[in-house]
Write a structure and sequence with these properties.
zinc, Dna Ligase, domain 1, mainly beta, about 450 residues, five-stranded antiparallel sheet, 26 strands, metal-binding, DNA-directed RNA polymerase, 4 domains
């Protein structure tokens, strides 16, 4: 095993980390000290390539070679010792061979924990790319517009996909409209780094995939600037639309790249290839948002933000203790300082029956149109598949109608909670800050 360079000493008595680049046998602390020692060292300076197993040193009387430079060798260091292993799972993005768009899948990783707490993560990709495949990877650290990515991507693929019989990847072909720089074949997997240090991974989302689209501009819009007309067309297509695993599209944020306009045969429109960024509504887990109570049932509360109505608070996520008042058609919460009644068991929340027997003046209601503060617990996407129209049996002879909105599941829903300090109706906590300051 090689010895670390700092263990060598120069003839002057100082530690050194450089050697003679010709023989790689004499060590010096600086090029100047090599020059000072050259009259002595040149006699024994034998090139390393001429070393033989029969002799480890040689004194040559050949003409003195020119003095070689003093360089730092590549020091071989013993890798840190692995003290334990760990496992993790993150969302990765797979580009299937026979598909039109990528999918999010869980990817298992095996971590080697070294001394000092450094973890070396190795994705387990054999089930996806093939058990017999030699896997290669590349790191994408800049976006399509040249901007640095805050969370770089690592793309894994078969290292010999051009010659191992892999089929062409139709997902990549569909995303790039056949304009990819390489003829990608076989399945491809992308993971997202947790930062620019490339030391760990995080869950990837569809928002990490740049949006590339074809946009047509009608002749009626030729009088407008190209970027204005393109932005209008993109807003018509995406605004107020839910994209699977991305969120509710609000509007176009900016255009990153716009290709040259092309007129297709038999079509008077300009067609542009565009890369753009979209403002998307998708609150993070544990994020606190403010909305209004839209309706209440025994199962829970529905909240609206004005532009988004599919926020639900199940009764299990209401403050404890809570109950549903059928007369008011609203939930109410009984604060702890009202538990002192003799009908309640000490240190135990009252039951629903006991709550409904309480004085109405002690209840804090979540009425309709009440402004509330809630915490996001989770969100869920659902892709409604097209199906046959439902006949209206109640009115014979009427044409088939499209199924009611109530029969269709919302494409994007958020589950929230108002169980916690500061959550619930804003009026509940109006004087809290003032009371705390007075105390």
């Amino acid at each position: 095993m090689a010895t670390a360079a700092i263990h060598h000493w120069c003839w002057c008595g100082n530690l050194c980390a450089s050697w003679c680049s010709r023989c790689e046998d004499e060590w010096y602390c600086s090029p100047e000290h090599l020059a000072m020692d050259w009259p002595r060292h040149r006699v024994n300076c034998v090139p390393k390539s001429s070393w033989s197993s029969s002799s480890t040193s040689s004194s040559v009387s050949t003409p003195s070679p020119p003095m070689p430079p003093c360089v730092s060798p590549e020091v071989i260091q013993t890798p840190p010792r692995v003290i334990q292993t760990t496992k993790a799972s993150f969302h990765g993005m797979v580009f299937p061979v026979d598909g039109e768009r990528p999918k999010l899948i869980p990817v298992n990783l095996l971590g080697m924990v070294h001394e000092g707490g450094v973890v070396d993560w190795q994705p387990v990709l054999a089930p996806i790319l093939g058990a017999d495949a030699e896997i290669a990877s590349m790191i994408i650290s800049t976006g399509v517009g040249g901007e640095p990515l805050r969370f770089p991507l690592q793309v894994f693929f078969r290292s010999n996909f051009l010659a191992d019989g892999s089929r062409r990847n139709h997902t990549v072909e569909s995303l790039t409209y056949g304009k990819a720089r390489h003829d990608w074949k076989g399945p491809i997997v992308a993971l997202k780094y947790s930062g620019t240090r490339l030391s760990g991974y995080a869950n990837i989302t569809m928002a990490d995939l740049p949006s590339l689209d074809n946009v047509s501009v009608a002749p009626s819009q030729f009088s407008s600037p190209a970027h204005v007309a393109i932005t209008n067309e993109l807003n018509k297509k995406y605004a107020n639309r839910v994209l699977l695993d991305i969120g509710l599209c609000i509007c176009v944020f900016d255009l990153i790249w716009v290709g040259e306009g092309v007129v297709k045969y038999g079509d008077g429109c300009y067609w542009y290839k565009v890369t753009f960024r979209m403002v998307v509504f998708r609150p993070a887990r544990s994020e606190v948002i403010i909305g209004k109570v839209k309706s209440s049932t025994e199962d829970g509360i529905r909240v609206t933000l004005g532009f988004f109505d599919d926020i639900y608070i199940p009764r299990d996520y209401l403050p404890v203790p809570s109950a549903f008042d059928h007369n008011e058609q609203a939930f109410f919460w009984l604060p702890p300082h009202h538990w002192a009644s003799a009908i309640f068991v000490a240190d135990e929340p009252p039951s629903t029956t006991q709550l409904l027997d309480t004085d109405i003046t002690t209840r804090l209601y979540l009425d309709r149109n009440e402004v509330i503060r809630l915490r996001v617990e989770r969100d869920e996407f659902y892709e409604n598949e097209p199906g046959p129209r439902k006949p209206d049996i109640g009115q014979p002879g009427q044409e088939d109608r499209v199924e009611d909105d109530a029969d269709r599941k919302a494409p994007y829903t958020i589950t929230g909670s108002v169980h916690g300090d500061g959550l619930g109706a804003l009026v509940w906590w109006e004087n809290t800050e003032q009371d705390v300051m007075e105390e």
